[in-house]
Amino acid sequence: MKKFVQWILPLFICFYACNTSSKKEPIEKWKREILETEKDFAAMAQQKGISEAFLFYAAEDAVLMRNNSLIIGIEALKERFEKDKSVGDQVSLDWKPDFVDVASSGDLGYTYGKYTYTTTDSIGESKVIEGVFHTVWKRQADGKWKYVWD
């Protein structure tokens, strides 16, 4: 019996420790949360405008990289959007993530995918720019996801 316990107990502990299904469940839940946040973010950009959406979903310490320069922090983002009059009714931005992942700790995640940025000039001519985006998401104290890098 002693030998049985010596072999079975470590074997049981090994199988229990290797069980990853309980670890995958919260990760999959967090991935779904981030994807839902991305979906809501893109919808808000279409409905209420790019500036409002980017400010709403930004963490206090968010960083945007635009035109090879960094805009750091929510206050700098507000100033940038106020100065940039091109982000108004004559532009639209649409995107959808192709991939999402999240840290096993559940505090950071990231997405990437394709975006389409469309501008319409004063004579009704449209210009479409397509590209790839990468967003880093951070879980906030209230449990919501906000981006810290875009």
Specify the structural class: alpha+beta
What is the count of helical runs? 4
Our estimate of the beta-strand percent is 35-45%
Q: What integer is the average pLDDT? A: 88
For the secondary structure, the number of strands is 6
Major sheet size, sense and barrel closure:
6 strands, mixed
Gross geometry: globular
Helix content: 40-55%
* CATH structural fold name: Nuclear Transport Factor 2, Chain: A
Name of the level-1 CATH class? Alpha Beta
User: What is the alpha-carbon Rg in Å?
Assistant: 22 Å
Instruction: Tell me the domain tally.
Output: 1
The helix/strand series, from N terminus to C terminus, equals HHHEEHEEEE
**Order of strands across the main sheet:** 2-1-6-5-4-3
- The CATH architecture can be given as Roll
- What is the end-to-end distance? 61 Å
Question: Are there runs of 5+ residues with pLDDT below 50, and where?
Answer: none
